[in-house]
Amino acid sequence: MAKPNKKGPSATVDIFCSQCKSQLFKYRKGGKGALLKCFKERISRDFTTEPAICPGCGLQFARDTLVRGTPAFKIIGGKVFVK
After folding, report:
1. DSSP secondary structure string, 9-54?
2. Which of 4, 37, 51, 59 is paired with 66 by a 20 to 30 Å CA distance?
3. Gyration radius of the chain over CA positions
4. pLDDT tens digits, one per residue of 10-67
5. Pick from 46, 52, 45, 43: which is nearest to 76 by CA?
6. Is-above-0.90 flag for pTM?
7. How far is the C-alpha of 29 from the C-alpha of 27, rounded, in Å?
8. Does residue 63 sit in helix, strand or coil?
9. Measured between alpha carbons, how far is residue 52 from residues 19, 28, 62, 73 in Å?
10. Is 80 within 8 Å of 61 (Cβ atoms)?
C-alpha cells in the first residue's frame, strides 16, 4: 500500500472535542469525507498535553495506531467535530 503524502493539502481544519468544545488540533485534511484518522505528520498545531486525551475534560478521543505504516490517531466516532 502507498504511504500518505507527507506534505498533504495546504488548507487546514480545526478539530474540537464534542463534550467540552476545546480545540485539539489544526490538521491538514485532504478530501471531503468524514474525519476517521489523523496522520501525525499532517498535524500542523497540537493543543493537547497528552496524546489522544482532551486537555479540557480528559476524554479519550482517539487511539494511537499505525495506518499504512505511518503513525496516526484513529478517531473514536462522535468524540470530535471539525470546523
Report:
1. -S--EEEEETTT--EEEEE---SSS---EEEGGGEEEE--SSTTB-
2. 59
3. 12
4. 789 999 999 999 999 999 998 889 999 999 999 999 999 999 999 999 999 999 999 9
5. 52
6. no
7. 6
8. strand
9. 14, 17, 5, 7
10. yes
